[in-house]
Amino acid sequence: MSTTEICSYPTVQELSKALADYVANLSRETVSARNRFTVGLSGGSLPRILAAELKHRTDIDWDKWIVFFCDERLTPLDSEDSNYKLAKEELFDHVSIPESNIYTIDESLIADAEEAANDYQDKLISVFAAMNTAKFPVFDLLLLGMGPDGHTCSLFPGDAYAEVLNESLAWVTFVENSPKPPPRRITFPPTVLNHAHNVAFVVTGEGKKVVLNKVIDLHDTTYPAAMVKPINGKLVWFLDDAASANLVALKK
Ligand SMILES: O=C1O[C@H](COP(=O)(O)O)[C@@H](O)[C@H](O)[C@H]1O
């Protein structure tokens, strides 16, 4: 059964603390049940907000973490645009996740979005095929952001998004004309997001309050973030009060 929880905090710092508790608890419970913790990370504002408190935690079995990226920009891994680079600087450089457990895109394929997506899908299959019997990978936790246009991962409103949705059996798909630079990206499609055990959105700032109302209160699926509804998992929204100011769901 799927459940949704919405949490809002006065400051981003308080949000970071609550998020660190949530991730640390899930990691502990999952490692004791399954002896590993499979995590999908996003880029944008998420890595900094996530790592601010989490990187100081000493109660996490980092060597049991297996990390993929929910989306990645097709750039060299040392580019300022790379989601991996951001996560490395904010989190990986401060904790002890084994390098071999962090799955990045193949840099030699960044000129060919389809090839890059296929290669990343092969990496996912190599890890998840042995773990799951489901048709899709079942992550223990996916950490997502949402842009002010309602995009999540590299699923954007409009044409590119419609193409992505049609790829419903793919584990990883690609975008060649993202409205937000850089244009070439790979991304998990909604089907993969919705098979996870746990999905957490982290959304902050006044600039996102209008679209948050459309996504959470109105379930308007023209905004891709509204498509995220885990089939059997738990969805938690970590918001700051600036982002949640318009939310009817929170006032009920
Ligand atoms: O381009 C992207 O944007 C989204 C949202 O970023 P944010 O800075 O508004 O939090 C991010 O979740 C995604 O991973 C990234 O590629």
Please give the number of β-strands. 9
Distance from first to last alpha carbon:
22 Å
Corresponding CATH architecture:
3-Layer(aba) Sandwich
Strand numbers in spatial order across the main sheet: 1-9-8-5-2-3
Counting H and I runs of at least 4 residues, what is the number of helices? 9
Instruction: Assign an overall shape.
Output: globular
Q: Give the H and E element order.
A: EHEHEEHHEHEEHEHEHH
| CATH C-level name | Alpha Beta
**Whole-number mean pLDDT:** 94
What composes the largest sheet? Answer: 6 strands, parallel
Q: What number of domains?
A: 1
The name CATH uses for the topology is Rossmann fold
Low-confidence stretches: none
Helical content, roughly?
25-40%
Small-molecule binders here are: the ligand O=C1O[C@H](COP(=O)(O)O)[C@@H](O)[C@H](O)[C@H]1O
What is the gyration radius calculated from CA atoms?
A: 17 Å
| Relative strand content | 15-25%
**Structural class of the secondary structure composition?**
alpha/beta
Short description:
The chain is of the alpha/beta class and 252 residues long. It is built from nine helices and nine strands. The chain has helices spanning 12-34, 46-54, 83-90, 113-128, 159-166, 190-193, 209-217, 241-244, 248-251; strands at 3-9, 37-41, 65-69, 71-73, 141-144, 173-175, 185-187, 198-203, 234-240.
